[in-house]
Amino acid sequence: MSLFLLVSGTLAWATHMSGGEIYWECIGPDQYRIRLIVYRDCAGIAVDPSYNLVLTSPCGDRNLTVFHSGPTELSQLCDLELPNSTCNGGTLPGIQQYTYTGTITLEPCDSWRISWTNIYRNNAIVNLTNPGTRHMYIESVLNSAAAPCNDSPTFTNTAIPYVCLGYPISYSYGSIDAEGDSLSYSLIGARMIDGTPIPYVPPYTPAQPIPGITLNPVTGLMNFTLNTAGNWVVAVQVTEYDANGNVIGIIMRDMQFVAYPCANIPPDAATGTVTNLTG
Question: Which CATH number is 213's domain given?
């Protein structure tokens, strides 16, 4: 059974980027591989073959051009229906992930801020004002002075999940850290060009982008129920601490939950990235 059977319609409004995050990996003394992850709705505009990342710090500024080698499809469809997604010329909702990479030399510094800005956000967004005119901005912060040759945390679970209206949803951010450092989770506001906060449509706020949403700061487990159809932006920050309690890294994920009426009754909560959704 495909997602098309679960929702009352397809993604007719999607025209722009759906989300993203930035990671780093130490590959040698002062050498880092930077990864920009971009999520694209396949019914929307194409991504560029390369993007420019801006790195700022008290120690100086840098620019890095990153390139992708091709997309990975993340569509929440059964295997038999994947050929019918919008990523493959069909009509069923489809999502692609693009991974852009580049390498750079960074001297030890307590706050390398790595950022990416792109135009524009998805017009179907419900909780941000004038979303189709807002840039998308994501960033990560690397402390290479306190933690030389440290890798960033990474998210392991799928971004851009489709959820059913009126049913409780549990979503785990599933972050892991290669060095076993402590991680904490927090809701933050979505941002536009230069990291400027985007105004939210009242009564939504950065801390309550979805009514009644909760995020466990230790486990990264998020719970909510959506009663309005559309695309809901949720931005989450993960802060990485060393054994002495020093902040040595920050990553964020800007993503969307796409809510639609379901034609069938979702199952009870089960293990996995998103519960109460079949596909």
Answer: 2.60.40.10
CB 18 within 8 A of CB 95: yes
Q: Which domain, by its residues, includes 159?
A: 3-260
Helix or strand run (H / E) with residue 144: none
Query: Degrees (nearest 5) of the Cα angle 68, 69, 70?
Result: 95
* 279 in a structural domain: no
Q: Per-residue pLDDT tens, the chain, 279 aa: give them.
A: 334 334 434 444 445 678 899 999 999 999 999 999 999 888 888 899 999 999 999 999 999 999 998 999 988 888 898 899 989 999 988 889 999 999 999 999 999 999 999 987 878 899 999 998 999 999 999 999 999 999 999 998 878 788 999 999 999 998 999 999 999 999 999 999 989 999 999 999 999 999 999 999 999 999 999 999 999 999 999 999 999 999 999 999 999 998 988 876 555 443 344 444 444
- Provide the token pair at 197: 């906060």
pTM score, whole prediction: 0.89
- Whose tokens are 């692609």? That residue is 96
